[in-house]
Write a sequence for this structure.
């Protein structure tokens, strides 16, 4: 790239944002950042910090879009069940934090996490800060440890479609999200953990969230 470093970084941030708005079949953010670090010698810390912020903003948009689709495509009963799960997760903040850190530091694609957050109406303020910190740390380490990268950016996107393991993870995640919308979470949570959503004592609460 024959562009100023600041412009190159901005273009990378926009690409990372777009990748993280996509619901599936995108390359890992750290791999894209590592490509630009190795091939174009972009500085590590600005790349990692801006990449983490851009990725998080993209995931927030994905969660918002998922909530919009939920409101337009799912039945009132399905929405209430999903809201029950979201209310439960907000009350069990330790469980929610552990799940976010698993997605932030682990190899599991985080698109399912934010789609689920949007579907269940989980407060994104519980998810975004730990996810941002986790991605900043993990991306920095992974980019730093990457000694070589694929010669072409298109190969990274192609691997997301051609690699059997990546396909299994992505398709499996989408199937789990589909299952999420049909499970009667109100009954499941009441039966297994003895928890009831607060609006059961106040009808109409689910639709007001």
């Amino acid at each position: 790239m024959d562009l100023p470093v600041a412009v190159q970084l901005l273009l990378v941030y926009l690409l990372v944002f777009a990748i993280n708005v996509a619901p599936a079949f995108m390359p890992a953010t750290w791999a894209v950042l590592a490509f630009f670090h190795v091939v174009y010698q972009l500085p590590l810390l600005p790349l990692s910090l801006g990449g983490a912020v851009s990725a998080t903003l993209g995931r927030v948009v994905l969660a918002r879009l998922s909530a919009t689709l939920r409101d337009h495509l799912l039945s009132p009963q399905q929405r209430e069940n999903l809201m029950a799960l979201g209310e439960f997760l907000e009350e069990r903040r330790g469980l929610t934090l552990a799940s976010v850190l698993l997605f932030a530091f682990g190899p599991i694609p985080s698109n399912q996490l934010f789609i689920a957050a949007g579907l269940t109406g989980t407060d994104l303020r519980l998810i975004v800060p730990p996810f941002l910190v986790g991605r900043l740390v993990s991306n920095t380490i992974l980019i730093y440890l990457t000694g070589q990268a694929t010669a072409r950016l298109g190969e990274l996107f192609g691997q997301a479609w051609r690699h059997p393991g990546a396909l299994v993870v992505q398709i499996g995640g989408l199937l789990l999200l589909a299952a999420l919308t049909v499970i009667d979470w109100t009954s499941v949570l009441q039966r297994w953990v003895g928890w009831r959503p607060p609006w059961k004592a106040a009808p109409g609460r689910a639709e007001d969230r």
